[in-house]
Amino acid sequence: MTCPLCGLRKAKRRCPALGHSICAVCCGSKRLKEIHCPTDCVYLATAREHPPAVVLRQQQHDFGLLMQLLRDLSERQSQLFVLVAGVMVRYRPLEFQPLLDDDVRAAAAALAATFETAARGVIYEHRPESLVAGRLLGDLKEVLSETGKTGGTAFERDAAVVLRRIEAAVAEVTKGTGSDPSNRRPFLDLLGRTFAKDGPVPEPSPGETPGLIVP
Questions:
Q1: Which residues fall within 8 angstroms of residue 49, CB to CB, at 6 or more apart?
Q2: CA-CA distance, 7 to 2, in Å (whole number)?
Q3: String of b and e for 4-23 (b: at least 16 CB within 10 Å)?
Q4: pLDDT digits 0-9 by tens, 149-186
Q5: What are the helix and strand counts (H, E) for the chain?
Q6: Residue 177, SS3?
Q7: Per-residue pLDDT tens digits for 185-210
Q8: Which phi and psi angles does 35 have, rounded to 5°?
C-alpha cells in the first residue's frame, strides 16, 4: 500500500490520528505539524524519548542561548522573562501582519521606556512606530500590568530590565546563531522551540509569575 500523503513510499506505520497507514518519512516530517497526533501514539512517544542527533544538537544550542540571555538576572526577573516569552509564543498576528523580531525589539524597547519613566514617577506611554509592534506591546502591557499591580516601583524596574534584555537579545541571537539573513524571526523561533512544546503556555494568575521552563 502506498502512503496516501506523499504517494511515493510504502505505508508501513498505522497512524491513529488519520485512521490509516502512512510512510515513516511522512510520519516523522508531518508529526504535530500537519498531523494532530494523539498523546498515546507510540511513534510520537518514541520520538520524544529518543530524538535524533540533529534535534539534540538544536536543543543543546537553544539551552546555551537561553542561559546566556538569562545571565545575571534575578529569580523574579527570570520569571518575568518566561512570562514575556509566553506572551510572544501565544501571540496571534492579524492576517498579512506577521510578527517579526524587529517588532519584538520595538515593542520591548517602548514598553521598557514606559516602565522606566513610571519608576521615576512620570507617567508617559511610549509607543513603537510599527502597528504590529504596537499590538504586541498592548498584549505585553496587559499581562505585566496585571501581574505587577501590587509590585510598585520595584516591579516596574524589574520589568524594564527584562524588556531591555529582550531588546538586546534580538540582535544577540541573530548574531550568535549566524542565521540565514532571510530569516527575520530567529529570536521568535528560539522562543517557539524552547517554550510551550507540549501545549500553550498557561495564563498566569493575578500577582503570579510562572516558573522557569528550560529544555
A1: none
A2: 6
A3: ebeeeeebebebebbeebbb
A4: 999 999 999 999 999 999 999 988 877 555 567 788 99
A5: 8, 2
A6: helix
A7: 999 999 988 885 444 344 444 444 44
A8: -110, 125
The DSSP secondary structure of 27-42, one letter per residue, reads: HHHHBTTTB---TT-H
Low-confidence ranges of the chain (pLDDT < 50): 197-215
C-alpha grid cell, residue 85: 516569552
Quickly list H helices, 70-194.
75-90, 101-119, 131-147, 152-177, 186-194
DSSP 10: B
Whole-prediction pTM value?
A: 0.68
CA gap 80, 197 in Å, rounded: 19
Residue located via cell numbers 542561559:
67
Beta-bridge partner residues of 35: 31
Unique residue bearing C-alpha cell 515513516: 24
Domain ranges of the chain: 13-49, 53-194
Please tell me the predicted confidence (pLDDT) of residue 204.
Answer: 43
Could you say which DSSP state residue 2 is in?
Answer: B
| Angle between helical axes of 131-147 and 101-119 (0-180°, round to 10) | 50
Do 208 and 76 meet the contact criterion of CB atoms below 8 Å apart? no
Indicate the DSSP class of residue 53: H
Q: How far apart are CA 171 and CA 173, in angstroms?
A: 6
